[in-house]
Amino acid sequence: MSQPSNLPRWATLWLMPVLNLFAALLVSGLVITLIGEDPVECLQLMINGAFGYPEGIGYTLFYTTSFIFTGLAVAAAFHAGLFNIGGEGQMYLAGLGVTLVCLGLDFLPGWVVIPLALLASMVFGAAWAFIPGYLQAKRGSHIVVTTIMFNFIASALMTWLLVDKLIMPGSQTPATRLFAESAWIPMLHELAANLGIELPQTPLNATFFLALISLVVFYLMVWRSRWGYALRTVGLNEKAARYAGMPVSKVIIVAMCFSGALAGLAAVNELLGSTHRMNLAFTNGIGFVGIAVALMGRNHPFGILLSALLFGALTQGGLDLSFEKPAITHEMIILTQGLIILFCGALENLFQTPLALAFKQMTKR
Amino acid sequence: MAELAIELTGVNKYFGEVHANKNISFAVAKGSIHGIIGENGAGKSTLMSILYGYYQADSGSIRLNGQEVRIRNSHDAIARGIGMVHQHFMLVDTFTVLENIVLGAEQGLALKQSLLAARAHLATLNRDYGLQVDPDAIVGELGVGEQQRVEILKALYRGADVLILDEPTAVLTPQEADDLFRILGLLKAQGKTVLLITHKLREVLDITDAVTVMRAGEIVGNVVTAEVGKEDLADLMVGRKVNLQLDKTPATPGKTVLQVSNLSLTDARGVKLLDDVSFELREGEIVGIAGVSGNGQSELLEILSGMREASAGSVRYNGTELTTLPTREPKAAAYRRLGIAHVPEDRSREGLVKDFSTFENAILGYHDDPAIQRGLLFNRKAIIERCRRFISEFDVRPANAFRRSGLFSGGNQQKVILAREIDSDPQLMLIGQPTRGVDIGAIEFIHKRLMALRNAGKALLLVSVELDEILALSDRIIVMNAGRVSGELPAAQATATELGLLMGGHK
């Protein structure tokens, strides 16, 4: 028998995530102290690295862009009751789509190549998510297991393709040739320069606006359309969905495709926005961070925006920090991310009982 | 006054803002059968959970046999001689009766010793209380009535002096219920105290010595059963005058709407869930399907509403064969489009999504309706307006379209579902357990609504495990047993006894 939650809504929505975040930072601080550094100084360096100067902000927002897409991808599947762990693989395959379009067609003008590449990223991402979705809907294969396996398959496939097929002729690094400049998505500092505003040079590009638009479109689709209505019904109560005459298998498959397409757009930000070629490591765990972003953002676009910003800041601030403090390695940043995921995801309700008690004390008085 | 087994004084329990039990004080005499009645959400279950140690009271005291006690958990409760028989049995189907009874009460390391000792003890209990349960039978193979007796044995084996039964007759045929009451009588004769939680007034009047009536978390009456009548209790429970008698004018059935012929359903294991079911349903009549739950009624509703495929047989609706209806969308959607509305048996798991706001549930199944679309998106205003109309027409309380459905009481949830289904102006209404877990005030309202639909010329198929409900509403009654139609008779000629025999398949 579960007791009804005794917490007001605002506390569940706002206070708990903040407390969880605080707890994660506290434990990180403890570890930093253990390796002989000053946690307060480290935190200051990190915040300064992420938000303290224009270039830092640019990088933070660049990372945020990718996290918004992979976060939305996880949320999309989650609303249909599916836990899509495969964002990483879907993004990887989407990268292949982008690359194929660019390698084959980048002699064409940008207004042709870029939309085609965007489309390819979504189609390839969706296709890679379709298979686990189909297996879940029709054969009952658990989506968590299949999407994890599909990450490995994607990784093996891409290694083979990059090493054997797509590698730049005569090169030793497993990467493609540089795409023609027509396929590059305009950088923000370039756009700003056209308007006469001077911004520092960062990889932040126009995909950022696409991410913001996606947040709004996601909200409208999931909460304001009958498509999203069916999606959420299936996710919350499959029996009720069957009662309502919804095609449950179809909803599940389409939800996974939607999810994969969103994850795919993250590849656009990385490939057309920043590196302008594909290399082996371009996904760099972005798909996995999406899980944390969605969990912390409570699968709501507004929450995802905030948590993507948090993880973007962590990534950028963390990089800056490790430049300043050699003792703080990249692994340390991953540890902090892991702790945030642990406290915000797995231990989500850690503070619920004590908080509820505190509220009870306050209301009694 | 006789010695007291249980005495509660000023017990309070809060869940956040909700005051679930307000200043509860009552006493139960030793060796008596004490009824606790009240509408859903009146606080009965919370109160019993406090007695059985699931919850702690926020204030107040509990005395057992004159001694003040604190019951921290169910182990505590059992140690103090309180036993509970839950509405949903807590038994392991694949174990024998004996193993189930010993489960959790084993002594020592070797199971064999415990089983031997238990066997002897069980024989005595079986004899003393006339329970007649075979200790070596596999629980899963027993009937529901017998399983319930196993639960009672379990409690007695653990030395219960006070037995709490939560809605014990919900799953029984009238005959099985009579058996249960006979056993309760024997328990009482042996000095045990029985607490009976129920919402069935007839049972309370038949077998209890005293009754505590609860409403909205408070006790509104402690009465001696012999001194009150059915209407008095109903009025106390609801807090106003209740009209238990339904005005039923003679039916004037029109043309046949639904013709079910030789319908069968076999599950994956080869068990026949429906076996050659045939009947017809006409405009302007209510056909009631009586039966103990689990005898094929649920499956019948599922097939007729398009949620499940039949194995064989035909269903004709206004001359159209439904089982082979060519459609690309799921059948449930296609049937609904043809004018078949469905109030599902399992309200909270099928009829609505608990985590949705009420206005979202107001369109479940009708979410494709063009009237609520605006381009690619929903016309939110139209949906909310529709929901507000439902709320006012069906007196849903609290009247808040944005409140999550799960927070409403069962009766108010049911009103929303009924409003939604009736609003689609169906020709055929399939209704499963319309008043299960619904308070008396709402039952009265729902019954009147259903009657009005019938008088307006709709065809209604009513599935209910409540015989009183079947008798009150139906024009014709079909009885189901083990997936087959075991009898069909006009309601005017049906009696509870006869239906009970048919339900048990004894005829």
Automatic annotation (TrEMBL), chain A:
The chain crosses the membrane at residues 12-36, 56-78, 90-108, 114-131, 143-163, 204-222, 243-266, 278-295, 302-319, 339-359. GO terms for cellular component: plasma membrane. It is a multi-pass membrane protein. GO terms for molecular function: transmembrane transporter activity. This is Nucleoside ABC transporter membrane protein. Signal peptide: none annotated. InterPro entries: ABC_transp_permease (IPR001851). It is found in: Cell membrane. CDD domains: TM_PBP1_transp_TpRbsC_like.
Automatic annotation (TrEMBL), chain B:
It is a peripheral membrane protein. GO terms for cellular component: plasma membrane. InterPro entries: AAA+_ATPase, ABC_carbohydrate_import_ATPase, ABC_transporter-like_ATP-bd, ABC_transporter-like_CS, P-loop_NTPase. One of its GO terms (molecular function) is ATP binding. It is found in: Cell membrane. PROSITE patterns: ABC_TRANSPORTER_1, ABC_TRANSPORTER_2. Residues 6-241, 258-507 form the ABC transporter domain. Keywords: ATP-binding, Cell membrane, Membrane, Nucleotide-binding, Repeat, Sugar transport, Translocase, Transport. The keyword Iron-sulfur does not apply. Pfam families: ABC_tran. SMART domains: AAA. The keyword Transcription regulation does not apply. It comes from the Bacteria. This is Nucleoside ABC transporter ATP-binding protein. It comes from Vogesella indigofera (Pseudomonas indigofera).
